[in-house]
């Protein structure tokens, strides 16, 4: 294995590959910051360029773009509450409050460091255990995914502080119902489409995220203008990007735990960065001491660090099934798989033997990509954060524009934009009525996966529910989910008892 | 003041230039799916071959996903001949979705130009599976038609399901009883096969070859009429004695009412392209198989496939009469 | 009497009732009608869950009202409501015009009108802040990334 690493290092450190990593990170970050163009589009657009260069360099370029896009997505998530990449939604829960409190610099710095650590730990685990991990990725079947998603749903508990539990649940079920719109993938029946062909494919995640987060946030800032600052006060601070020793000490264990959790979830073909980020967020909130728990959702450092490390670790983890089995776990890795095949490289158990240079080059370049991202982005942070200081009129219009055009660039369908405007209005009203938005996204994202895995599990078990407790793995995860979900329910009942 | 008026003038010029440029004639290809998908790859690869071999000076692409491809078709019908040189790429699912009513159109609403490549269905098992041949599969199914689970990367009633059902129907087993487990995408279906959740995988030959070449799976049979030159050892269902074949073609369509001379011109270009070494690079890279069919042949093949699949879908209960 | 929380619960009650009605009307394909778990199963579960939570919320409100007057409404002035409404309308107009008059023109108009609504009145600033943004964006997307943007159906 050592020669493999050396081989990978020597390939990755060639000057043109270094150039590709840097270029990829830049391009990826830029594209990730624009809401609509996510990693999938970015990589798909890169593919023709990669045909003219050799395979390892092509993969290195694409890996750079992939990670850059994730970081870019975090940036817009934290600064303007406009998560354009599903994996960075959870970062906005605590990242955006931090930015509003004048600590945007610190928030972006935490995001950068947490992502770096997550990706590095992921790359380490990948190097040490790739073939063994391949077995892990195949040990999950549909019922296990259902259990995992239920565990992910328990993250709602993280949004139900004192009395908002029912509101959070209503929003979650709302999200779940939105995920049922469109053609049911298991059977082909049309559901809730009202004869509209544009709804056949369902509602896209980007649409809902942009309208309920970015658009609604921008509009609600117009609706409820913040208190005018008197002439002597400072304008909105960015804050320094330095972290105090105490802060580093506080978030390190969270980062470590979230990276490992995120990596393992990434290894599973049916789960990716999004679930990983939500679960890490929920896990850290549940593990935090009571005093710190309240801070989650209002600017907790741990609450930002956890999903950031988890999503990068998960991205790295998703390379395991791709490289060792040829199974793409997400849209992005599917495109990378296509690229690998197009280069004539066969991913699978043979990859390490037949094309060790590609295998190790990809892994080492992931390391490099992480380092490059950190070096590139830390100095950029003060400039990126300047976005917040823009005059409100310009910032608002820019957010409206980017949100609308972002969704348009994905589907080229103005119907989607009309839907966005409708959702933004609904979200605005819901915000005024004090409903939390995050559970909506959570329900929507998980709804799809819960239903299709559930239907599949029932099909393979011939309609018997016992499939959910047959295997110890499935049973274990389900019990964990029930326990975690029961905790806030119990405290809610206790509160109601006190009120009566 | 002068700076501002200069700025205004240059902006105006840029805007006008933008309008002019986009009004120039060029080959424009509509893709009914998102970037990175099968249609997208086909269209862009064809464009690449056309430009690299010098047959076309410029090709541009427009992704119009939505409605299972219906949106792109609606666009073609509406815009069609108002613009020059627009083609749409499509494949067998258009026939299936037209039959099931998922899209309110059919291939008859467009003018078939030519078919370029073909993919076939294939049935795959894990390397360590006790099933060693397709005949064995049929034997087991004869005693218990729902005994074996087939995975597929698309919904029930779509291509992967239909092909598998048709295959077992050709052996006398009622297709309705096939146990098809749908997955969200090809990758997930592969995971389903390898994790042991299902026994067989029904997928496209190109995907099956990925698995087989990776050493994790075996291809038991495929649905071409003749064995493939590159892989003669994979048996066709016909060779095994079952009268069934299925082709997933990928070709181009033009708007309804396009002049025959225009269609002939397209065909001329496309046929030339198929001969070029640039196309061969693209074809080999993607693992496609050339299957050129001119407009009449293509239209006839479409009609035939439509009839065949309609019968299969009726038998399986996917459409009511 | 009608406080925020009650209104919210009522809205969701209405929504989930409507959802339930449609869920029970989902047309099933012939081969599905026999299945225990089919396309309509999960939507029905969601409908029931949603109704349950909204009713619980209303119940909780009824109980709480005996003890407190409930949350107040946020302070919003008329001007802000007007601005927000016009912005929503502007977005609608932008979307409607995007394909007919083309990306460049529609975006420039959208951005300038938006700045105007937000209070910017200097027309030079309006134009300079909107047109270059539209042009640069158009250039990056069509030239650099190769994505096709409609140039305006009215004149092509």
TrEMBL record, chain A:
All residue ranges annotated as the DUF112 domain in the record: 18-442
InterPro entries listed in its UniProt record: DUF112_TM (IPR002823)
UniProt entry keywords in alphabetical sequence: Membrane, Transmembrane, Transmembrane helix
Transmembrane segments: 20-47, 59-80, 107-130, 142-159, 260-283, 322-346, 358-381, 393-411, 417-447, 468-490
Pfam families listed in its UniProt record: TctA
Name of this protein: Tripartite tricarboxylate transporter permease
Organism: Rheinheimera maricola
Highest classification ranks of the organism: Bacteria, Pseudomonadati, Pseudomonadota, Gammaproteobacteria, Chromatiales
TrEMBL record, chain B:
Coiled coil: none
Protein name as annotated: Tripartite tricarboxylate transporter substrate binding protein
Pfam families: TctC (PF03401)
Transcription in keyword set: no
Keywords, ordered alphabetically: Signal
Lineage top rank: taxon: Bacteria
Source species of the chain: Rheinheimera maricola
Family statement drawn from the similarity comment of this UniProt entry: Belongs to the UPF0065 (bug) family.
InterPro entries: BUG, Bug_dom1
Signal peptide (UniProt feature, chain positions): 1-25
Automatic annotation (TrEMBL), chain C:
UniProt keyword rRNA-binding present: no
Pfam families according to UniProt: TctB
InterPro entries cross-referenced by the UniProt entry: DUF1468
Signal peptide positions (record): none
Transmembrane annotation, as ranges: 47-64, 76-95, 101-118, 125-150
Keyword set includes Nucleotide-binding: no
Superkingdom per UniProt: Bacteria
Residue ranges of every copy of the DUF1468 domain listed in the record: 8-149
Keyword annotations from UniProtKB, A to Z: Membrane, Transmembrane, Transmembrane helix
Name under which the protein is recorded: Tripartite tricarboxylate transporter TctB family protein
Organism of this sequence: Rheinheimera maricola
Upper taxonomic lineage: Bacteria, Pseudomonadati, Pseudomonadota, Gammaproteobacteria, Chromatiales
